[in-house]
Amino acid sequence: MPDTHRTIDAVWKLESAKIIAGLTRMVHDVGLAEELAQDALVAALEQWPVAGIPDNPGAWLTTTAKRRAVDHIRRDRRLTHKQEQLAHELERQREPEQDDVLRLMLISCHPVLPTGARAALTLRLLGGLTTAEIARAFLVTGAAIDRRIAAAKRTLAEQRVPFDLPEEAELTERLSSVLEVIYLIFNEGYSATSGDDLMRPGLCLEALRLGRLLAELAPHEAEVHALVALMEIQASRSAARTGPAGEPVQLHEQNRGRWDQLLIRRGFTAMLRARQVGGTSPGPYLLQAAIAVCHAQAATAEDTDWARIAGLYGALAQLLPTPVVQLNRAVSLGMAHGPQAGLDLVDSLAADPALRDYHLLPSVRGDLLARLDRHQEARLEFHRAAALTRNAAERAFLERRADAIVDADPTGPTLGAAARAFLARGELDPATVRSYGQTLRRLRLALGDRRPLASLTADQVAGVFATAWGGAAARTWNRHRSAVRSFGSWAHLADLAAGLERRAEKTGSRAPTLGPAQLDVLCGRPDLPLRERTLWRLLYESGAGVKAVLSLNVEDLDLADRRAPAGRTWVSWRSETARLLPGLLAGRTRGPVFLSDRRPGPGRTPAPADLCPDTGRRRLSYERAEYLFKEATRSLDPAAAGYTLGRLRHRAAERAPHMLSDRA
Asked: Among 184, 229, 469, 510, which one has the highest count of C-beta atoms within 10 angstroms of its own C-beta?
């Protein structure tokens, strides 16, 4: 069955764009088309493990999805006149029209959608990417991508956007977003953000195909040909980018004899077309393609014209002053003018929030430090980069680079070891461990688990705070500051928080609690998960604090008596929570009551008390619970910012002795 599921996943990645495109042509609703395609995927998950994988799995999914589309249209009386035509199309089993996928791309990039939504929706429908992968490409949260995609589908349906190729004038207006989307798809295939393999060749091929089709549709657009040239030349290196075991091979170490000369020639041809139709001012893709041409023209790594590449990156940074462009510019400066020149630029980017968890920042910094013979610092940076990446091949490569640096091991404890020892103390309750753990995890990611504790300075900590919580509320800032002060005192680093001033917190009357009618509206939403419904009801009925409720464990619940211990207090509930709890527990007998949506990653191993032994998922965090409630209550808040979970807590309940009395 695991092999079958992997096959289904692979087929879906390859075929989903074509299936959704063909369905969109039939039903003229991109949101409905994706739902019908997902129905076919569910059918495959149910039937293939039992009946076996069909000879042509893509055709099976297409046929199943089209049958569901026909059934849907037959149920719609307004479209009954199309039944015979659609049924005949299903019987012929013809392949989707050549430009169906391109039509889907253009409708996903329609001007009625914001730019971010266009890219996210196209990556979802045409690239088959998950929300997490799209979020990584945009350096934003997964929840933000979910909102963009949902809003985009709703807008396309409300505006009745036609599934037609636009006129040439309208096409020109959409090209900027379309090009961005194609290149993002290519990049996800060229350097996969997650998984075991460095590359996903199918995505590269899909992006190349879309780019070539777009070049045929808009032959007089220089940036279209430039993007095709860029992708062709980058794709030419694919065979040389990995070693025998799938490990990454750096550009200067690649066997250039394995570069695909056909793709390079195609790239050069596209570049010539871009220059022929281009104006006097080169665009961003033309500049990037010119950089790729410089690499392709060098017979050896030593022959690379790094001075020209650095100049091109300088021009690109003027057009696109993004932190990622600046990071690539730092690499070229380090090669053209010495590693210190590159390191100076990298260090100026360290405080940029957009690069906070971007593994290539410490990776580039480690390479520059190694070339400056600052080996101990370089090794720390490679380890930090390995901890940040979610790609297994890249993580192993970075760890090998770190281990290959021969230098004396640091004496004394490291930041990671000290943080684990600090959190393992028996006198800390679970809520405090979670709170302190969030602060220390950010320090460990930003500064490196293997950084010698003795080398930790107040300036370094202040830099992390400025990047991670510079715009946070005073209460959040002060909570993390308190955690650092406690850790510093325990580790005999009393001045660790010296650069962190306490922020004044707002005082005043407490906001009124939500009324029962408002809560009924929230909990009555059909799409609301059972976890949120139960948590909100429990907070409302018990009057207990959010942290106390989130600390509850299944084995401590007294369902008959409707109460459970939480530290030195008791949490009690009433009938509505009692009705919901059994469904939420679903037979679980141990572990946290409220669980997160996903299992923790390898770099986020929670404490045993916060891990469910039955599901492998961790305890729901306070921050995540607060975020979900704010998102759900935006429509109720006149300021549209959403409410905090504290709005569920009644003052009368807070004074109830049976809820907050000390345990006997």
From this structure: 229
Per-residue HEC secondary structure of 312-359 comes to: HHHHHHHHCCCHHHHHHHHHHHHHHHCHHHHHHHHHHHCCCHHHCCCC
Contact between 143 and 192 (Cβ < 8 Å)? no
What does the pLDDT look like over 338-369, one tens digit per residue? 999 999 999 999 888 888 889 999 999 999 99
Question: Could you tell me the two tokens for 524?
Answer: 């009555």
Cα gap 487→637, rounded to integer Å: 38
For residue 499, what is the DSSP state?
Answer: T
Per-residue DSSP letter, 605? P
Stretch (H or E) spanning 29: none
Q: Is 505 helix (H, G, I), strand (E, B) or coil?
A: coil
Query: What's the token pair of residue 166?
Result: 């636009």
d(CA 562, CA 518) in angstroms, rounded, equals 24
**Is pLDDT above 60 for 659?**
no
Of 541, 545, 511, 512, the C-alpha closest to 660 is 545
Distance CA 443, CA 506 (A): 27
What is the tally of helices (H) and strands (E) in the chain? Answer: 30, 4
Which range scores top for mean pLDDT: 330-344, 435-449, 494-508? 330-344
**C-alpha span between 200 and 98 (Å, rounded):** 23
Determine the residue type at 57: P
Q: 102 CB contacts (<8 Å, ≥6 apart)?
A: 165, 210, 213, 214, 217
Q: How far apart are CA 506 and CA 467, in angstroms?
A: 23
Q: Which residue do the tokens 């190729």 mark? A: 165
Measured on CA atoms in the order 179, 181, 184, 185, is the torsion positive or negative? negative
pLDDT tens string 597-648: 876 655 456 778 888 888 888 899 888 898 889 888 887 877 777 888 888 8
Closest CA to 98 of 22, 8, 201, 186: 22
Amino acid at 131: T
Q: Which residue, among 457, 463, 424, has the nearest Cα to 605 in the 3D structure?
A: 424
What span, in angstroms and rounded, lies between the C-alpha atoms of 18 and 97?
9
Distance of alpha carbon 349 from alpha carbon 453, whole angstroms: 24
In angstroms, the CA 395 to CA 386 distance is 5
CB-neighbour burial class of residue 386 (10 A; exposed 0-12, middle 13-18, buried 19+) = buried
Asked whether the beta carbons of 277 and 172 are under 8 A apart, the reply is no
Residue-wise pLDDT for 481-521, tens only, equals: 999 999 999 999 878 999 899 998 876 555 677 888 888 88
Q: How far apart are CA 341 and CA 307, in angstroms?
A: 13
Task: Please say whether the beta carbons of 247 and 397 come within 8 A.
Answer: yes
> Is the separation of the CB atoms in 359 and 333 below 8 Å?
no
Task: Give the angle subtended at the CA of 462 by the CAs of 459 and 468, to the nearest 5°.
Answer: 145
Q: State the Cα–Cα distance between residues 54 and 56, nearest whole angstrom.
A: 5
